[in-house]
Amino acid sequence: MVLLITALTSAVAGQEPKIRRHALLVGIGDYPAVSEWQTLEGPVDDVAAMKSVLIDRGGFEEQFISTLTDAQATKQAILDGLENLIERAAPNDLVLFFFAGHGSWADDIDGDEIQDGADETLVPYDAADRSGAERDILDDQIRAFITKANLKTSNVVLIFDCCCSGTAVRGTGIVSRQVPPDSIKGRGIAGRRPGRGPDG
To answer: In a 10 Å sphere around its CB, with 0-12 CB exposed, 13-18 middle and 19+ buried, how is residue 157 labelled?
Structure first.
């Protein structure tokens, strides 16, 4: 967090005033009981704290910061919010996406996850309905957002405060620091889908 604040503060000092900063802040702590996701105490407060820091120290204007918390943060709402970030941004603007909540992974279906055979995912509020249909946001979708955003600006900042976030931007040219992943087979617990539910 300190490094992020320093980087954004430096950017404010070194950029022309006409460059705007746009943010989408997502925090999900109160997942519906039917989803079996454990309640998290921090994400909604993290969104408020991040918004305050961005305004007070990062050069962001409140009107250019969108927030989605708990039940607001459905998969479609998050994807629409990301699309809106790109639409609002002018060339060379700064675009920031912050997500605090559960992270997971899903079996890779398009063959691009050679290392572990799994897509890292963000878990939106409606990740599972009563029939168990999963609606995670795949790292492929995050990659598509970055690629599209980069057509306007190279100033794209992603902050993931969730499990399985270390390789979420793999394949984008972004270098992330991480430890080698465990075997996907070793991640699950007692027959539960890996990463799913309070024991995942």
So the answer is: middle
| Closest to 12 measured CA to CA, from 94, 96, 87 | 94
Distance from chain centroid for Cα 2: 19
CA 8 to chain centroid: 18
CA–CA distance, 185 with 147 (Å, rounded to integer): 31
The β-bridge partners of 138 are 121
How many residues are recorded in the chain? 200
Take residue 91 and report the two structure tokens written for it: 């060339």
Which residue has tokens 């006409």?
18
Q: How far apart are the first and last CA of the chain?
A: 26
Beta-strand relationship, 118-122 and 137-138: antiparallel
Neighbour-count burial of 185, counting CB atoms closer than 10 A to its CB (0-12 exposed, 13-18 middle, 19+ buried): exposed
Backbone angles phi, psi at 170, to 5 degrees: -60, 140
pLDDT interval class at 34 (50, 70, 90): confident
Residue found under tokens 């999963």 = 134
Q: What is the pTM of this model?
A: 0.74
Span 141-191, pLDDT tens digits: 999 999 999 999 999 999 999 886 544 444 445 444 443 444 444 443 222
Phi-psi region of 95 (alpha: psi -120 to 50; beta: other; left: phi over 0): beta
